[in-house]
Amino acid sequence: MKLTVLVDNNTLIGNSLYGEPGLSFFIEDEGKKILFDLGLTDVFLNNSRNLNIPLDDIDYIVISHGHDDHIGGLFHLINYYKDNPPKKKPTLVTHPLTFEMKYLNGKIVGNVLAREVISNYFNVKKTTEPFWITEKLVFLGEIKRTHPFENFTPRAKVLVNGEFMPDYLVEDSALAYDTNDGLVVITGCSHSGICNITNAAISLFNKEKVLDIIGGLHLLNPSDEKIQGTIDYLSNLQPTLMHPCHCTRLEYKLMISKICEIKEVGSGSVIEY
Question: pTM surpassing 0.90?
Answer without folding.
Answer: yes
